[in-house]
Design brief:
2 domains, 15 strands, 11 helices, Ubiquitin-like (UB roll), globular, about 30% strand, five-stranded mixed β-sheet
Amino acid sequence: MAVNLTEPAALLPVAGVRLGVAQAAIKKPGRDDLLIIELVEGSRVAGVFTQNAFAAAPVQLCRQRLGQSQRLRALLINAGNANAATGRDGLDDARQTTAAVARALGCDADQVLPFSTGVIGQRLPVARMTEAIPRAVAALEADHWNTAARAIMTTDTVPKGVSARVMTAQGEVTITGIAKGVGMIEPHMATMLGFIATDARLTDRAVDQALRDAVNVSFNCVTVDSDTSTNDSCVLCATAQVGAQDVDVNDADYAPIAQAIRDVCTALAQSIVRDGEGATRFITLDISGARDGVEARQVGYAIANSPLVKTAMFAGDANWGRIVMAIGKAGVENLDPARVDVRLDDVQLLQGGEPHPDYVEERGAAVVAKPEFTIGVDLGRGSARARLWSCDFSYEYVKINAEYRT
């Protein structure tokens, strides 16, 4: 039921990156559910992770290992099991599986980052994963991005991947990213995993800055159901294969590379919402006239996460009273309703806190009947704005999550 989302065309290889998948029967037999991403020696890596207090074992281990070094050699990703709320045993399982990858690749275990997605509260099938790891290593190829995107899916209906190229003074740079996630999506981060790689020769500082800036305007601007996963993770890997000089944040080449990374992350984030569990509408929240960006996001998320708004959008019901309700409950201090405007695409619903004199129900209904539209709000308080993306709540969302473990 993805909204205007199709399987990506052939994703571009990134020099210095190889990917291999295997079947480990982690949740169900007969599907690829284990992925290894190998990075050339000298790659620089940055990551951002969930703020959920029950951060999964792989998230904890990633934070520890990234804090020790940015010189990583591999990523190990599994679908079907989150390895979350599993305590010390879960950490031991993550260490065992990454050690198996390290043995297969000839690197140190601390140079392997683990990532998991799936059911919470269950132990990883370490023996099956350890047996599958050599098969994934044997399958490593530079052009396996599309296969990798499919292997990390859980309730996703469409694999998610984007590639871009940008010309720099040192040559053409490639960026390719894949992601998974359709439910339990809201920052910070916003069950999502994202893996982006570039062959640019970025410094450690530049990799970290580029990722954080990109995530702030992409993965941290989406919501499906207001729930923040225990496993949300996003990683940027720069393999330093293009050019001879490092690119730092103040160098001329940094800006176009960083913009391309933001574009890739934005497209991936939007694809997550388009494939939101049971989604039939892709909704852009365009909030303007706020005093600051925090306030703009506060209002945007109040609307985007309101079950009443989301169910009305699923029904194609232009019940703008629900939007006004959500704005009012957002907790904006001293909000003056008489200064608030609301629109659906270019159809003005509310002007100065009152129904627009030219509004008729048929015009609003025509907008929300479309698969994609914008809810625009001007708070009339300042010049700050924010743009977020969300989806509706359908019968299918309830069905998917009611039957998730069956």
